[in-house]
Fold this sequence. Notes:
The chain is of the alpha/beta class.
Amino acid sequence: MNIVNLNDLSLEEINDLLDEALDFKNGKTVDYQNKKVIANLFFEPSTRTHYSFDMAAGNLGCRTQNFEANHSSLTKGESLYDTCKLFESIGCDALVIRHNEDDYYKQLEGLQIPILNAGDGKGNHPSQSLLDLMTIKEEFGHFEGLKIVIVGDIKHSRVAHSNYDIMQRLGMEVYTSGPLEYKEEGYHYIDFDEALEEMDIIMLLRVQHERHKGENDFSKEDYHLRYGLTLQRYQKLKDSAIIMHPAPVNRGVEISDELVESEKSRIFRQMHNGVFVRMAMIHKVLGHE
């Protein structure tokens, strides 16, 4: 099987992946004894996703091959399909792929090897959504009725697009906020300051300048003042509220520097949980039922 879009999975399958990830965090071990090879194909820069998939594979006793786009036959005109077909042909057991094109995986339907989507354009980021859900489940023990506001560059964010759909399916109340020019049509939009006191989860996003065409004048100071989580806004949050961010974090823009590791912040716990979620995903596509 592939894991490329969480909308392809049932809620039972999603909860099974989360339970598996929690089991791994609580000490469950699986050892493929170097008999499985995971190829990491990252066509966009990545730190957290790339290296946590690499760590996850290692924790499962898998070997990894790490593809470098700039030193490959892509520079000679090789297609994405043929690049992936190579890794299938040389004996890899699963492909982890990050690509800047939306729904890139639709080009790969002829492959006979599992695909784990590590992010496609501004479309989907299933492993990030799953680690976010794992962090929320650890914190609250449930999803039903929780209120979350996702703040920032909604329009260009695969994190926002993946989370908005799956969190609603799980019974959460999902809101978005941020600059109107980054608003996504059809999403529930609210004023950030008006939402603060009611929310269980504040999820902050960076502005994805690399996906903007003809970037307008952007002021970090102005953005932080209008949409950033400042100390003043932090003090309005519910006692039980938590702060999340997929990272990389732009300190002093979407969140004040002193709040990144504050009591309510779960940003580095998200990163920690990402390894266990990706272990569960790899274990699933390698044939585990």
